[in-house]
Specification:
Order of helices and strands: HHHHHHHHH
Strand content: under 5%
Radius of gyration: 26 Å
CATH architecture: Up-down Bundle
Oligomer: single chain
Distance between the termini: 131 Å
Shape: elongated
Number of strands: 0
CATH topology: Methane Monooxygenase Hydroxylase, Chain G, domain 1
Length: 219
């Protein structure tokens, strides 16, 4: 008499087929999510570049385009928790938050919250840190134009954001790498502070030289 098979395998094919059907849904949703995330990231980058060009209308249009793509990605990934935890979806949300927050920091407007943007908390925090880093480019443009007061104001904004974020003390697994992003922001902040300080001192020296120079009289 032969030994019985371990367990009843009469329905194993059907069980595997059910799993395959589920995985097919996951795979299809993943493809949709990836395409939407790539579109969101491209639109966010273009929106930030428009902010630096001081083209507020185009920046807003592209940020809106980014938001549509992010919403599409989130909807596609919604039924599948394993997709929502994917790094590509976090990156898309982070880039979207960065685009909105960069525009707000440059314009002096109210910063939209994570809830208002409909993004995860960790993505919002990293987006804010990277938005503050983006201010360096805008600040240097203002320095080249001789707008010292504006440059100093932007530096203060960078400093305030860093001061607010540095107290967030949670593991990287929770913040999705915020600590590394803050390390980069601190380095950008210190370089920018040096640039502003040097320019302000040069400006003061130039004014002092001009004030001390004797005026040329007429004969």
């Amino acid at each position: 008499m032969s030994d019985p098979l371990p367990g009843n395998l009469s329905g194993v094919d059907d069980l595997v087929a059910e799993c395959c059907a589920d995985l097919e849904g996951v795979n299809s949703a993943r493809e949709v999510t990836l395409v939407a995330c790539r579109s969101a990231i491209r639109a966010a980058g273009s929106s930030i570049r428009a902010v630096h060009r001081q083209d507020a209308v185009e920046a807003l249009r592209l940020a809106d385009e980014c938001e549509v793509a992010v919403r599409h990605a989130l909807d596609a990934a919604g039924p599948y928790p394993q997709l929502r935890a994917g790094g590509f979806l976090h990156d898309a949300q982070k880039e979207f938050a960065e685009a909105r927050l960069t525009a707000a920091l440059v314009s002096g407007g109210q910063l939209p919250s994570a809830a208002a943007l409909g993004v995860d908390t960790a993505a919002w925090l990293r987006g804010l840190a990277e938005a503050a880093s983006e201010l360096r480019r805008h600040l240097l443009d203002r320095l080249r134009e001789g707008q010292l007061d504006r440059a100093e104001h932007l530096l203060e904004a960078m400093d305030e954001v860093y001061g607010a974020l540095v107290v967030v003390d949670y593991p990287d697994a929770v913040t999705n790498g915020l600590r590394r992003t803050l390390d980069s922001l601190r380095a950008v902040l210190e370089r920018t502070r040096g640039d502003v300080t040097t320019t302000v001192l040069q400006h003061r020296l130039q004014r002092a030289i001009e004030a001390a120079s004797p005026t040329t009289g007429t004969t």
